[in-house]
Write a structure and sequence with these properties.
350 residues, alpha+beta, Transferase(Phosphotransferase), domain 1, 5-stranded antiparallel sheet, 3-stranded antiparallel sheet, 28% helix, globular, AGP_Transferase, Aminoglycoside_PTrfase, Kinase-like_dom_sf, Aminoglycoside phosphotransferase domain-containing protein
């Protein structure tokens, strides 16, 4: 394929959901790319010579794709480029791009039966593991409108349709049989043969762990290490707080997991499964895409409900001293799976 100066000048790059006044650092800089002409059209095998004549190029061997990537389909013109922000808070670069690409591949396999396909294909990627490098992912641009922009104005029947599809997608992710290389709880990456294997969790900077309980123990140890390095918090050592934290990790944490059923379960966890990251077709009301796998991991299925479903009434939030009795009742119903029928007329749960 030969691209000239005019092709590049006609290619457009538009940032997506970027606010320069945003108070927090973005995890990624996301751009929508529209090429001047289809990237793999038949015309791309021709090249212009100095005499102005177009001649057919000699066939070239197909390059070997990177692990987790596929060739760009003929006629593709619209793409998405995600560039990792090295200054993102709480994100560790060692395998963050590899983890996202690996989970995208697992999710695509788990949801292969869904039509249209809801997981974007990866065309190329670059690791962020080298100091000073910007990781990136070039991927398919999915069609549809953001669900969160229209969800509030939908009828109850339309909301139920969206939530039902979300539940079907979630079940498929959790039912998927993970490859043999996934042996722990945490992140994922590729080995030397391109197989998906367990790795550290990019949002924690450690792992993989041998159990779901160990994953929380690892997260707590990481948080305490950061506190030790903080000159203001100083490891929470004043007034015996640090001793109580250490005691909780040693003796209290196991008690929290003692009654957890199916504690050996490992599934694909999107960890940001919200209406913000869903696209849908406004005519058919079918979900067309599940996006943004930046926080995705391999963890216990319960973890999804602690991190996802904000905006659709499904997230399990923590206890607070000023919560209403309705909030407490709703949380208990979510935990037990028992909801009143009919639902209260003023319920915003769905």
């Amino acid at each position: 394929m030969t691209w000239g100066k005019q092709d590049l000048e006609k290619t457009t790059y538009v940032p997506i959901q970027y606010d320069p006044e945003c108070p927090f650092k973005y995890n990624n800089f996301v751009y929508s790319i529209t090429l001047s002409r289809p990237l793999t059209s038949p015309e791309d095998v021709k090249t212009e010579h100095s005499d102005g004549q177009l001649r057919q190029q000699q066939p070239q061997p197909e390059p070997q794709p990177q692990p987790g990537s596929v060739g760009i389909p003929v006629g593709t013109r619209d793409l998405i480029l995600r560039i990792s922000n090295p200054d993102a808070e709480g994100m560790h670069s060692a395998t963050r791009v590899e983890n996202e690409v690996a989970i995208l591949n697992l999710a695509s396999a788990a949801l292969r039966h869904v039509e249209p396909a809801v997981v974007p294909r990866v065309f190329a990627w670059g690791s962020a593991s080298t100091a000073g490098s910007l990781g990136w992912i070039l991927q398919e641009r999915m069609r549809g409108a953001p669900v969160n922009e229209d969800f509030g104005a939908m009828s109850l029947e339309q909301k139920l349709g969206i939530v039902t599809q979300m539940a079907e997608i979630l079940k498929a992710l959790q039912d998927y049989k993970l490859p043999e290389g996934i042996t722990g709880w945490g992140g994922a990456t590729f080995d030397g043969q391109g197989r998906i294997v367990s790795a550290g969790m990019p949002s924690v900077g450690s792992g993989p762990w041998g159990s779901f309980e160990d994953s929380y123990r690892g997260r707590l140890h990481t948080a305490i290490q950061r506190a030790d390095a903080n000159p203001y918090i100083q490891g929470w050592r004043a007034n015996g707080v640090r001793e109580r934290l250490d005691a909780f990790i040693e003796r209290g944490l196991p008690a929290q997991f003692a009654a957890l059923a199916f504690k050996s379960d490992r599934v694909i966890v999107h960890a940001d499964f919200t209406t913000n990251n869903l696209l849908y077709d406004a005519f058919s009301h079918r979900i067309t895409a599940l996006l943004d796998y930046d926080f995705a991991a391999i963890l216990h299925p319960a973890y999804e409900f602690l991190r996802s479903f904000d905006g659709a009434g499904g997230q399990l939030r923590g206890w607070s001293g000023d919560e209403s009795s309705e909030d407490a009742t709703l949380r208990q119903a979510k935990l037990e799976g028992r909801f009143p029928s009919p639902l209260p007329a003023n319920s915003d749960a769905i």
